[in-house]
Structures are given as C-alpha cells and as structure tokens.
Amino acid sequence: MKKLGIIIDSFSGLTVEEANQLGFYFLPLQVEIDGQKYQDGKDDHLSILLKLQSAKSFFSSLPVLDTIEKTVQEASEKYDDVIVLTLHENLSSTNKYLKTFAAEKANVHVIDNHFSGIQFVNVALFARKNYEEKNMPIDKLIKSIAEINQDSLTLLVPKNLDYMIKGGRLTGVKKLILSTISMVPLLNYDIEGKVSVLGLKRTLKGVIGKLFDKTNDFIIQNNLTQVEFNWMHGIDEEVNNLVKKIASEKAIAFKHEQLTSSVVAVHTGPEAFSVTVMPKLETN
C-alpha cells in the first residue's frame, strides 16, 4: 500500500507531541517576546499567551531553515508522496522556502491554502485516508483539497488592535482608521492569504453576532449542507464566555475547541479568537 507523508506547521495550533501522535511532520514557527525566542508548539502555548499580556516587543518568524530542509528531505525519502499544508505565503515566508526545498523532489507537493487551526488536521487526515485506503491519485487529491479550501472560512476578532498594529498586519489608512475609532473589527483571513476588515461594531457582543451572520451567509453562498464550526480562542474568559453564549443562542455547536497558537496571538493578541467553518470530511 502506498503511503502519504504530511507536513504541517504550528499555525495548526497543535503541539509537536500532538502532531507526532497523528503521524505528521511538524514545523514550529518562532515567536520572540521581549527578546526571548520561543518555538510555537514546542514551548507551552498558555505560558506564552500570558507573557504576551505584558510584553513590550513581540514578533514572529519562520521555522529554522535547517529544520525545514531536513524535514522535506526525510519525508521525501520515506513516503511515496508528501503533502505540505502550512500558513499561506502572504503571511509567512515558510511556504516559499518549502517550495524551494521541494522543487527538486517530484513527490513533495506544497499546497496553497488558507486553512487555520484544526482545519489543517481535518484536511490532512482526509488526504491520508483517501490516498492510502481509497487509492486516490495525488493529482486528484490535490484538486479535492483545493475544493475544500474554497469552501472553508476563518473569521477573527481581536479585542485589542495593538498587537496587529505592532505586528505589521495593519498599515496605512486601515491602521489610522482602526486605531483612532472605538470600534471592534471583524477580520477575514481570505483565500488569498490576506487579512481584511469584514465589518466594524461598537461592542464585542455586536461583532460576535455579526461574525455568526457572516458564517451563515458563507454557508448559503457556497451551497454547503454538511459543515462543522471550530473555535480557536485566547485567555480572556469574559470574551470566551460571551462567544459560547451567543453561539448557543444561535444553535451553533463547536466540533473542536483549541487554545490560540503563539504565532497567531503575537499578531492578534492573547484575547483574540477565531471561528472557522469547513465541510464535514471523512477522516477515519
């Protein structure tokens, strides 16, 4: 039976142990907080989020290049085909380096996507099942993943815009407007790998309600019948409880809940959260 190798990064929200238990190769993005470097997914997520609350300087960077190169080499030698699912190249140069290292390896396929959090895991398990158990050709599998990508959505709500401004995710006119008005933004991590403002509300409650309105619009527009909602959240319990309350009122159940990864929190703040929508996939 042919075997499929899978490489993901810490934008998945997994720890290295969780990734290894699933049989995935794992690339930890790096974060630096007040001069101290941490490896996302190797160092404890919660402790890093707590440090971020009072941090004066913070930024993220790609995984160690040597680790990227060795991972691609090992996976290529061990598996018949390898798929790579990582943060979009418009948000991280990791993807570009992976494409460079994979260029001479015909069996390594770096797949452009805008997945986040547990979506990476769902897609990876779906891919492995279809490749190994159903003998799906790799080109057809890549096409299937592209279709799932089209039908997937990630919406984010940062409580504090300071992190996005300092992290360079908000610039120019957008930065000026959002930093001078008292509004809470709803952000969309779009299919081109860019973070754009989808709407503004005066209250957190208002923006959460708008978020779920937008997820409903997306489901209708894409003619999706079987979907799952997932939630990646920070450490502000007041925010988290409000999300759960409004989701319950709208009869929305999260299939999976996870703590925000360090690399996400560096750019959105330790209180920020995201809600994702994607098709239900056969993964086991």
Give a summary of the structure in a few sentences:
With 284 residues, the protein is of the alpha/beta class.
Q: If you had to describe this structure to a student in words, what would you say it looks like?
A:
With 284 residues, the chain is an alpha/beta fold. The chain has two domains: 4-150, Rossmann fold, CATH 3.40.50; 153-279, 2-Layer Sandwich (Hypothetical Protein Tm841, Chain: A,domain 3). 41% of the residues lie in helices and 24% in strands. It contains eleven helices and 13 strands. The chain has helices spanning 16-21, 45-52, 65-78, 94-102, 118-132, 138-150, 162-166, 172-180, 204-221, 237-249, 262-268; strands spanning 4-9, 25-27, 30-33, 36-39, 58-61, 81-85, 108-110, 153-157, 184-189, 195-201, 227-233, 254-259, 273-279. The strands form three sheets. Strands 10-9-8-13-11-12 form a six-stranded mixed sheet. It has a four-stranded parallel sheet with strand order 2-1-6-7, with helices on both faces. Strand 11 (227-233), helix 10 and strand 12 (254-259) form a beta-alpha-beta unit. Helix 5 (118-132) packs antiparallel against helix 6. The mean pLDDT is 92. Pfam families: DegV. InterPro entries: DegV (IPR003797), DegV_C (IPR043168), DegV_domain_contain (IPR050270). Keywords: Lipid-binding. GO terms for molecular function: lipid binding. This is Fatty acid-binding protein DegV-like protein.
